[in-house]
Amino acid sequence: MPVRSARAVWEPNEAGGGGEIVPESGDFTTSYSRRSRFEQGSGSNPEELLGAAHAACFSMALSLALAGAGHEPERVETQAKVHIDRQESGFRITLIELSTVGKVPGIDEATFREFAERAKATCPVSVALAGPEITLEAHLGS
pLDDT digits over 120-142, tens only? Predict the structure, then answer.
């Protein structure tokens, strides 16, 4: 199996610092800063990228599980909200909220939710992030 990598550069300064994040694919480069992470500054941040990875992994795992059971999805869209909070020991990711909507012909809401719960428990990113609480809201869409 392949090993994936990304590179990040951080340069401290009086404003708190900044840098860039580059995945090995080179498909994009994004900036990040203290302001983009802990305030509402422009640029990306590690939590946003973690959320993107989690949403993508979960969507793929759910789609593959549904298709494997004969429920070919037309679309699975997932949002991941990653919460970072200051605690006594420093900043911690305390919660990840997954919200997914699937367009899956011929399946009912309860069955979709069962597949979604299994995908949440087994997608590789969920497994890697087993420390924070991960909640899930799953619905069929039209």
Answer: 999 999 999 988 788 899 999 88
- Give per-residue pLDDT as tens, 7-23: 999 998 887 889 999 99
- The two three-digit tokens of residue 101, written as one number: 């909507």
DSSP secondary structure letters along the chain: -----EEEEEE--TT--EEEEEETT-S--EEEEHHHHHSS-SSB-HHHHHHHHHHHHHHHHHHHHHHHTT---SEEEEEEEEEEEEETTEEEEEEEEEEEEEE-TT--HHHHHHHHHHHHHHSHHHHHT-SSEEEEEEEE--
d(CA 81, CA 52) in angstroms, rounded, equals 9
The pTM assigned to this predicted structure is 0.89
How deeply is 20 buried, as exposed, middle or buried, from its count of CB atoms within 10 A (0-12, 13-18, 19+)?
A: middle
Which is it for strands 30-33 and 75-87: parallel, antiparallel or unpaired?
unpaired
Question: Residue 129: how many CA atoms within 13 Å on its side-chain side?
Answer: 28
Rounded to an integer, what distance in angstroms lies between the CA atom of residue 46 and that of residue 10?
Answer: 12
